Amino acid sequence: MPVTALLSAKSCGVTASALALTLASKRPSLLAECDPAGGTVRAGFLNGEVGAGYGLYHLAAAERTGPDALANAFANHLWPMDDAGHRKLLPGLTDPAQAAALSRTWPSLSEVLHVLSADAEYDVFVDAGRLALESGHLHPTLTPAPLIHRADLVLLVVRSTEHSLTLARHVIDPLRTELQERGSGADALGLLLIEDGSYRAHQVAEALKVPVLAALPWDPDTAGYLAHGGRPPRGYGRSPLLRHARTATEQIEAASSRRRIQQEFPARQANPQLAGVLQRLAEQRGGGSRG
């Protein structure tokens, strides 16, 4: 199952989208809330049920002890988001000032997330927050750069509005270059489209020169509940957002599988000499048929 990092050029509903995907997945799933600006799920969707004693920040101290301590701390700091425990949350930071302490933790956490994905077959979604660049590269403190570098897919969350596309255009090329030079490859980049504007998916893909791998409908009632908590709206479990999020998780998994196959069986490079021979044979055959 893939490890998918979600981020945005500006606030575009990354957390609500990541939460919808996690809750809607047909497989066991985990949302790792890794936005250095701070997490919002515990105060929003979870209505303050999870205290500061749980969460991402506590992994930093464990990582300094060793990989076993980090793995144990990771397991102990997951919070179930459903009665069966199939949907789990790693709560995010309660204070953005804590982000600097995680610079050493991100690579080890990335390894844990990929083991959970590969061995336990979890869908893993990483809320990476807002994209922050420094000298054309991911900011080392304001982004969880190692998680983004190693993700199977990196989804830039955009809305189907002119304003959102304008903001996204400025970050596409640096992000693509970052993934090519420091990550798993530029082909890891895709778009998650929130359909609250006039542009269609194919128009967005053409405008940004990046494929739309999945789309979610504009469902303000459900999105507001996921972002801010409170009482779920009527028909929440059958809401358009969750129904389409279920389909989106399958599309994301399919895109990750295609990418993995392409990496394992890369296209054969053309041999210029062989191509020339084949071309001459084709020409000779064409000439013979005319005779």
Oligomer: single chain
Identify the overall geometry.
Answer: globular
Q: Give the full name of the CATH homologous superfamily.
A: P-loop containing nucleotide triphosphate hydrolases
Give the N-to-C terminal Cα separation: 58 Å
Indicate the structural class: alpha/beta
Please characterize this protein's 3D structure:
With 291 residues, this protein is of the alpha/beta class. It has a single domain, classed as Rossmann fold (3-Layer(aba) Sandwich). Helix content is 45%, strand content 17%. It contains ten helices and ten strands. Helix 1 packs across helix 8 and helix 1 crosses helix 9. It is globular and about 75 Å long. The chain starts with a strand and ends with a helix.
Topology overview:
Blueprint: E1 3-8, H1 14-24, E2 29-33, H2 58-65, H3 67-76, E3 79-80, E4 87-90, H4 105-119, E5 123-130, E6 133-134, E7 137-138, H5 145-150, E8 153-159, H6 162-182, E9 189-195, H7 201-208, E10 212-217, H8 220-228, H9 240-264, H10 272-290
Parallel strand pairs: 1-5, 1-8, 2-4, 2-5, 8-9, 9-10
Antiparallel strand pairs: 3-4, 6-7
Helix pairs in contact: 1-8, 1-9, 2-3
Structure described in brief:
The chain has ten helices and ten strands. With 291 residues, the protein is α/β, with parallel strands linked by helices.
Features:
291 residues; 17% strand; two-stranded antiparallel sheet; globular; alpha/beta; 45% helix
